Amino acid sequence: MKLADTFSMNKNQTFGAPLILVVEDNEDNLVLISYILESLGCRLITCKDGGETTVILAKEHHPDLILLDIVLPKVSGIEVLKSLREESLTCNVPVIAVTALATEANRENIIRAGFNNYIIKPYLIEELEEMISPYIKDKLNYSSDIILGQDNFY
Question: Rounded to an integer, what distance in angstroms lies between the CA atom of residue 98 and that of residue 128?
């Protein structure tokens, strides 16, 4: 786990760049999603192992959104979500599943587990931005290089 960006304001403030906790065990996927989120003007915290670490980070930093891989090395993303939903400090944080599990049955199980939404890997930059925008739009700075609706392929 690492802090991907330096916090420049008090974590209890309700304004400023959105803070997103990204839980992803694949280094390449983590680099890509970090690049996209930083390009959007988001601050982020990354975690590779899921489990208890995710819950601790979420309780400590109060992210605006969590992007959670489903297939993790120690515990499934669904189990991590259950732990997040049981904690009073994290039960209302929106959580989006980011996964390669692409069948309709997978999607139904993930949504039924309590995720706010679901995005399938691989995804386009625009798809990720469109997916996260409703959850962070009040804090998102659209002066970044990536603007919804433009063709941006990296």
Answer: 9
Inter-residue contact 81 to 113 (CB < 8 Å):
yes
Half-sphere exposure of 135 (CA within 13 A, CB side): 23
Tokens representing 143 are 């002066």
Residue labelled with tokens 């997040």:
84
Taking all residues of the chain, what is their mean pLDDT, rounded to a whole number?
85
pLDDT digits (tens, 9 = 90+) for 57-82: 999 999 999 999 999 998 999 999 99
Sign of CA dihedral 107, 99, 5, 154: negative
What the block records as the tokens of 121 is 């890997």
Whole-prediction pTM value?
0.81
Partners of 43 in beta bridges: 19
